[in-house]
Amino acid sequence: MDIIKGIAVSPGVAICTAMVLEAEDYQRISHRTIPPEKTRAEIHRLRKAFLDATTEVSGLQTAQAELWDSRIKDIFAVHLHFLRDRTLRRKIADLITQHNYSAEYAVSVILRDISKHFGQAKDRYISERASDIFDIEKRLLQHLMQERREEVQKLTEPVVVVAHDLTPTQTASFNTNIIKGIATDAGGRTSHTAIVARSLGIPAVVALGNATRNITIGDIVIVDGNHGTVVVNPDQATIEEYQGYAEAFTAREHKLDELAHLPAVTTDGHTIRLMGNIEFPSEAKTTLQRGGNGIGLYRTEFLYLDAAEEPIEEDHYNAYMETIRDFGDHPITIRTVDLGADKFTQARSAVPERNPFLGLRSIRYCLQNLPMFKAQMRAILRASVHGDVKMMFPLITSLLELRQAKWVLADVKEDLEEQGIPFNENIPVGVMIETPAAALIADELADEVDFFSIGTNDLIQYTLAVDRVNERVASLYSPMHPAILQLLRNIVKTANRARIELSLCGEMASEPEFTPLLVGLGFDTLSLANPMIPDIKKIIRSVSLEYCQAIALKVLQFDTSNQTSNFLREELRKIQAGEIENN
Ligand code: PEP
Ligand code: MG
């Protein structure tokens, strides 16, 4: 039995067999074995990968026939020669049967060995073939990995997915009846993969370092998404202990659901609006079931992530109308697409950016892709006559950027008017405060918008210069850093002065230890992951506004994140134990 520690990113407990996905980078193929009864299936995978790779190279050969020069001709011939070589395939298959290696590992062992021999040859022609062998290995691995990814979609038995990392798109495609838990080597608490896992209610632990090396397909794995631990091949006593814990956790969740129809009001009568963050329109129902008062953040870019073709105006409109139908008159804040960084554009871009989080993401991407931006705005405006719809721009860093976005909006309104298409002329327009620049010019921004929503996930990343998806610096990613708390306090002051609405929609709003602090700082609207709405509501209903204000005052005097963290954790313990005296 092994216990691996990581970062808990989505609550709950899963106990299941493991499905391990290889890392997408071909340098790190793990020494992985499979259960002996799976060797036949593994050899079948290998045969299929050889076949698919051969078909692929033959296809390329035909497609390029007219362009052939003799060097290209040589390359295709060498590749096909190896891919059709039965002895080579048999050697790889032998490693699978004799040592129970995974097909990926067996391919990499044999082909790297051949490549090494070629590389050492004195004859230049032969030594240059080493890079061809590397290409063949890569092609075979690509097919094997692609097949494994497709296999995940076709599984019929529940599994825990173990991977080096997952993209938000991969995670979003998981069937929650089958994928019961997620464990990854990489990642951070506010990565979009973690956010999607939380929305789907799949227990997840990230930043495990070497999970993919230590876990083999078919191992029994426990994912404890509450404490950030993964137990590999637990003994019977440990399984029973976790089963008991999982049942208690589920019972507690059901009990919390009883709060769904009660308001989030403090013991001294101060009401907090709890809104849901969603990625897909289908989640709006869950927000309602869990007692949310509306949608505070609709991450519309997810429409792009699982689409085969670029969504058009009608796709946007249909998605928004689905949300509105579920939500009736409750407010729905639709954020214009926040593509880029860890979402979508890098994978599809011919030349990926060197610093994607500082690159062409979000509003910058939209302002450079006006037809796409306008299509989304038209859809939001058309939907705005059917519900309480607001429009929000992400990653604003300057007044000019906000104004440019508003000019585009004015243009789109004019077009709709000319075409006689109805829309809400006074649709509220807001910005996310998620860069230090926006926080510092909040006064000026407040004069030109109807509301602010603070995106702490990015605000923390950009203020502290800590990548939100990098597990190596995860311990530095602290919402309790005095710089962050000062920014939050100043933004509250600015919003109050300007009399504009304010909410906080970063993951900080989903974490119970921060609830008293945020209420005490003056946040009356929090927008959070659906599954956490009942937990946060329970805390609000257990404390007074006065107590929260005292907490905020105290925390603002601390100089370090650690002091704040210890203090808030202890206060949360007291609240949950019923030890707080309220008036
Ligand atoms: C944020 O940055 O806090 C936020 C809510 O936006 P996202 O997580 O989608 O970047
Ligand atoms: Mg953000």
Verbal overview:
By secondary structure, the protein is of the alpha/beta class. The protein has helices at residues 39-63, 70-83, 86-99, 103-120, 124-154, 168-172, 192-200, 211-214, 236-257, 284-289, 302-305, 313-327, 345-348, 363-368, 370-383, 399-418, 436-440, 442-446, 456-464, 482-498, 515-521, 533-540, 545-557, 561-576; strands at 2-5, 7-10, 13-21, 159-163, 179-184, 204-206, 220-224, 229-232, 273-278, 295-299, 331-335, 388-393, 429-433, 451-454, 501-504, 525-529. The strands form 2 sheets. The protein has an 8-stranded mixed sheet. An 8-stranded parallel sheet has the order 15-14-13-12-11-10-9-16. The longest helix has 31 residues, at 124-154. The protein binds phosphoenolpyruvate and magnesium ion (MG). Residues 394, 434, 455, 457-458 line the site of magnesium ion.
Let me know the number of strands: 16
Percent range for β-strand residues: 5-15%
**Tell me, what's the shape?**
globular
Global structural class: alpha/beta
Write the CATH homologous superfamily of the largest domain.
Phosphoenolpyruvate-binding domains
Distance from N terminus to C terminus (CA atoms, Å) equals 49 Å
Share of helix, binned: 40-55%
Main beta sheet:
8 strands, mixed
- Could you name the ranges where pLDDT drops below 50 across 5 or more consecutive residues? none
CATH architecture of the largest domain: Alpha-Beta Barrel
**Count, helices:** 24
- Any idea what the radius of gyration is? 27 Å
Q: How many domain regions? A: 3
- The CATH top-level class label of the largest domain: Alpha Beta
Can you give the mean pLDDT?
91
Any idea of the CATH topology of the largest domain? TIM Barrel
Small molecules held by this entry: phosphoenolpyruvate, magnesium ion
